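User: Structure tokens for this complex, please. No commentary.
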Amino acid sequence: MEAGTSTKGTAASMSVMKRVTLIFRSKANKALDRMEDPRETLDYSYQRQLEMLQKVRRGVADVATSRKRVELQMNQIQQQSNKLEKQARDALGAGREDLAREALTRRSSAQSQLSDLQAQYASLQAEEEKLTVASQRLQSKVDAFRTRKETIKATYTAAEAQTRINEAFSGISEEMGDVGMAIQRAEDKTAQMQARAGAIDELLASGALEDVSGTPRDDIQAELDRMGAGNDVELELQKLRGELGSGSTPELEAGSADGSAASTPHNNAQAPRPASPPPNGAQPTIPASDIPASDVGQSAIPASEPPRTGDGT
Amino acid sequence: MIVRILGEGQLSVDDAAAAGLNELDTKLADAIERGDEAEFRRALKALAAGVRAAGTPVPPDSLQPSELILPYEDADLAEVRKMMTDEGLIHG
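Assistant:
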């Protein structure tokens, strides 16, 4: 007892694998309903195996559904993130640093949701693959069991039947236990993610990441529109939009911005050509980071902005 | 000797490799006893890797039971503790 080798923890000091095996086996045995006639037990067990196969296939389908839902949310959030970015540029172009800041703040929140969803997506995908493989494995074993079962029944002699039946059972019931737990785990994970997915749906509905034009909740766009409705600001804004190439490209590209875009609005403020491309036509989308430099100053761009140019490619 | 890694399947492991695996198993047991989650993670991964390295996959249509069963590689400490007591296993 005081010997160097530990004897205190009854469960843990024993081999983990042996302990798990022991528990696993006793559970599997309990799960097996034995009939009076071993042949009936074989048939009954086979039915349960088929049920388990159904269950694991449903499990695969459920996980796939969750995965698709997450994928859908990812797309939605990505779109909103893109729009917010565009709005930030528009706002900044119109000299509204406050609006731009708000848009970028929401965009950063959208981005963090997105990375959370990406992790969920990967996890669900892994789970789906695992369950698919488990289902194939169980299918193989169930097929083997059916063959064995028929052989045993055909050549049945009570004396040898029990041993052979036991052999067949122990292998299949272990697999059933494994698959059963795998399904349970997958269900638990899916349930957790569904709860989170529900939360994200609510978030999307609440407008916290919202900016879709036309929705009453889109205060940034509303503000931009209100300003636009102003007067000469409208002209200026429209022209800026045109020169920034907004509306044509949702994505911000590390294009060749030569700074002339930021200054041009002052020169031809008289030309009300909404959304028409700049005369030279070749002007690509201007990165947001280039716009404020002359108009509003560096402070307009939150720290989250610089790395952006890189991750779009 | 046939070893099952839960969620992964069965492997046939050479008896000669058993000693090394036992050592890893003891480390795992110690980590569980001490409640050391980080060490537990490492030990469980090492054990699973050891089984995989020493074993060859058993054909899927085999109906042989396993001699030893290893928890899911990504199981957490609480989950494995449950598997070592009666409440842990769910059978559908």
